[in-house]
Amino acid sequence: MKRKRKPDKYILLVYLEQYYKGDSVKKEIYSKLSNDLWSINFEGSIIRSTNSERCKDEFNDIIETKRYSYFIVDKKNERETKEIVKFITGNDIEVIDLNVQNKVYDIDRLIIFKINNEIKESSNNYLSYTILCMLLDAGINHCIYSDRDGEINKKLDIRMKNKEDNRNSALGFRRDLGHVLRSSWESDFARILNYLNIEWDYEKEGFELDSKYIQGYYIPDFFLDNNIIIEIKGFWDDESRKKVRCFKEQYNNYKLLLIDSDMMITLWKLYSNKIEGWESKGISNKNEKLPVVGITIANRKKYVDNIEIGEEVYLKRELDNKYDVNAIQVLDLNGNLLGYISAEWAVIYSYKLELGMKYTAVVTKKEQKVMIIDIKRINIEEDIIYKFLKEKDK
Question: What number is the average pLDDT over the span 93-108?
Fold first, then answer.
């Protein structure tokens, strides 16, 4: 009779450790539990500090000059984890069951699996990094350790979704789409494309970015025919804005179209009741705080000085600006120029103004070189979307 594998207490400890971060109650529970665990005599071990014969028996294809990563996740997340890994690597993974049970942390079993850690060409990142990012987005807690050149690194890198990150990313495998997608918005947008019989690929290619304000890789969401790329955004952080700006500057042979809450709210209204499997329960457009620059120029400063906090201004697209193709003027109610929306935000809002979206804009802050305005779309009753997303008469 084959002896059941027993867990290494260290594996259980490092896995449980991720549950108490930022939670004093859970931390106290964990501290007591960890003391109890160290008093238990576990047999067997998965983690080894060197490439011992026993380790070779358990992972018998460890080879020098190769790089591997090992992930530990909860057994109840096995199916979704396998789907994510297969989506990234194209291969099924073999998992080892760890006989771990803990009622306090709602753990019935753990699993461990190994990844041949190669560079993923589309993003220039190791596969393990791409996998852990998707696991984080999916809200799947896990820990990871590495083996490089046959030496197993005992230091485990514990990964857990930041509790302050309130994004509802909902990453996972969508069976109706046959894809892993990162959010409910992306999934619903893919369903719209299918409904309209528009062919698409998802995150199929990465682009190297190299500018004075950002370096790295950008992987857009959707690829359509005729070099059309779609980026879906639930919110615009600093990195996202810089990537979009840099991509548009470097890769002008592609047409990058942006969709955020200002357009997604209309797509939800038009399609949520028509498409089976629609996920998003409701969408509202949000306020954004935009910086206005160029306010110190002499012929503008006198008007800026007269503007009060809480006063309304308005936006106007400047199509013939020779310095910025996305230029957006900020004017007072008398039509006097106060400044321009900063370049990285102008990339996002220029297309919206061109499509006919209208905004309220109120001054919320004035500093020496910049003014902050709070804006929100006001004509949401108008169904403003890209032409190719409009349903043709059937």
Answer: 76
